[in-house]
């Protein structure tokens, strides 16, 4: 958990267009709010005897959380530069035998249209489930990527980026192959749980017989407005986690996070795209919580209360890596997580992190199965994630308290222009 954490062609075949749903399914979710008050009154009158409460006489407008919308079309795919969302789903698919390049292109065309509609607060074009019928967009984002195996399945091996070569093994790895990698990867984020699930279900239905779910993980973050003022998120260890995330205002941000449109060793279809590393990192919370607060702060190198470095100041104050205490010992230990992951300690390596926390219940002995769905973005995973993780492998104090249980690396192309779908340059180029 490095310290930089936290920013159309028509269907070509009948299988590309699922059967038409009833006409009312195409209504905008947002438009339905206009009739919410009247509908509620009818329910109240008819169902009052069995416990239904009448709705207010006039419709309640969308809150700021519900009305927030992210555009699907753009230079970069959504879900990279936006802030952390309260709810998320990560899911990988494998293409079914015989789907090939044609099936994959049809699927990405369907997925892109569904994502565009849902992100605009509209219903899915076919068979909408009504789960999010009365909700606004709620900052929904949907992001698509391609795994290493996708290119062999579609006959596109010659167009596979070198940067997509499998990640090396690390000492903290205890990887479950069934929950790692995959042909296709989808990231869904929203500030409403029903909106996020609605998107997950719609995309899974769109996959039809072309792709099957390989693995799926659910995550969460603090909800917008839960704190008195905006602040950096905390992880399940209670630590402020995201202080040194690179910012779009940084002069070298684009160079570190996105593949340039020209002058790159990457294939042209990756222009304005990025590479995402996804890791399911289990936190050994029972062990961690046995440490005193002071010991936890020594492991991280920052104060737990406000994220400030142990050498003083505020969360954004630079670390004084040479400062010693009265005994001559370094205030920030040599193996402190925050020291090891600093870009200036790793040849400038930086990643844009947009993680989710997760909790999948408890083991038989009561141990929580909880931790971080680590999601990090970079223009070159070898110079970004791999560089930092190798450094962590050599002596990070936090390594005793985490275990990497699943992993994936995916090529995420740039955003789709109006009238195009994600990955079109690859699949039709």
TrEMBL record:
GO terms for molecular function: ferrochelatase activity; heme binding; metal ion binding; peroxidase activity. It holds the Pfam family Dyp_perox_N. Residues 232-416 form the Dyp-type peroxidase C-terminal domain. One of its GO terms (biological process) is iron import into cell. It is an enzyme of class 1 (oxidoreductase). Keywords: Heme, Iron, Lyase, Metal-binding, Oxidoreductase, Peroxidase, Signal. GO terms for cellular component: cell envelope; cytosol. The keyword Iron applies. Residues 1-24 have a biased composition (Low complexity). It catalyses: heme b + 2 H(+) = protoporphyrin IX + Fe(2+). It is found in: Cell envelope. InterPro entries: Dimeric_a/b-barrel (IPR011008), Dyp_perox_C (IPR048328), Dyp_perox_N (IPR048327), Dyp_peroxidase (IPR006314), EfeB/EfeN (IPR006313), TAT_signal (IPR006311). Its EC number is 1.11.1.-. It comes from the Bacteria. Residues 1-25 are annotated as: Disordered. Binds 1 heme b (iron(II)-protoporphyrin IX) group non-covalently per subunit. Belongs to the DyP-type peroxidase family. PANTHER family: DEFERROCHELATASE, DEFERROCHELATASE/PEROXIDASE. Involved in the recovery of exogenous heme iron. Extracts iron from heme while preserving the protoporphyrin ring intact. This is Deferrochelatase. It comes from Streptomyces lasalocidi. The gene is efeB.
């Amino acid at each position: 958990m490095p310290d930089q954490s936290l920013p159309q062609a028509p269907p070509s075949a009948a299988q590309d267009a699922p059967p038409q749903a009833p006409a009312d399914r195409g209504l905008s979710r947002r438009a339905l709010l206009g009739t919410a008050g009247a509908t509620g009154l009818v329910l109240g009158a008819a169902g009052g005897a069995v416990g239904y409460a009448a709705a207010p006489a006039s419709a309640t407008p969308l809150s700021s959380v519900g009305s927030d919308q992210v555009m699907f079309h753009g230079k970069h795919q959504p879900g990279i530069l936006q802030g952390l969302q309260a709810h998320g789903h990560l899911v990988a698919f494998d293409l079914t035998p015989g789907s090939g390049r044609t099936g994959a292109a049809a699927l990405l065309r369907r997925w892109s249209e569904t994502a565009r509609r849902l992100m605009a607060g509209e219903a899915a074009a076919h068979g909408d489930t009504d789960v999010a019928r009365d909700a606004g967009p709620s900052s929904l984002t949907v992001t698509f990527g391609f795994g290493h195996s996708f290119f062999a399945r579609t006959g596109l091996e010659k167009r596979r980026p070198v940067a997509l070569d499998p990640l090396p093994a690390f000492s903290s790895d205890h990887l479950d192959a069934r929950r790692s990698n995959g042909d296709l990867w989808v990231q869904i984020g929203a500030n409403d749980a029903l909106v996020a699930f609605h998107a997950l279900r719609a995309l899974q239905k769109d996959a039809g017989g072309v792709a099957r779910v390989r693995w799926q993980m659910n995550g969460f973050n603090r909800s917008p407005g839960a704190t008195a003022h905006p602040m950096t998120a905390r992880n399940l260890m209670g630590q402020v986690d995201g202080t040194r995330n690179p910012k779009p205002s940084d002069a070298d941000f684009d160079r570190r996070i996105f593949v340039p449109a020209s002058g790159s060793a990457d294939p042209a279809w990756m222009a304005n795209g990025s590479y995402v590393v996804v890791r399911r990192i289990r936190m050994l919370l029972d062990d961690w919580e046995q440490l005193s607060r002071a010991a936890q702060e020594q492991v991280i190198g920052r104060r737990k209360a406000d994220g400030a470095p142990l050498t003083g100041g505020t969360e954004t104050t630079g670390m004084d890596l040479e400062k010693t205490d009265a005994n001559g010992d370094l205030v920030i230990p040599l193996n402190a997580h925050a020291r090891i992951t600093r870009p200036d300690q790793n040849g400038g390596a930086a990643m844009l992190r947009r993680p989710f926390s997760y909790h999948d219940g408890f083991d038989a002995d009561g141990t929580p199965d909880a931790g971080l769905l680590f999601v990090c973005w970079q223009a070159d995973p070898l110079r970004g994630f791999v560089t930092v993780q190798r450094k962590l492998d050599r002596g990070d104090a936090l390594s005793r308290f985490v275990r990497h249980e699943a992993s994936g690396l995916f090529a995420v192309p740039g955003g789709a222009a109006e009238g195009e779908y994600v990955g079109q340059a690859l699949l039709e180029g």
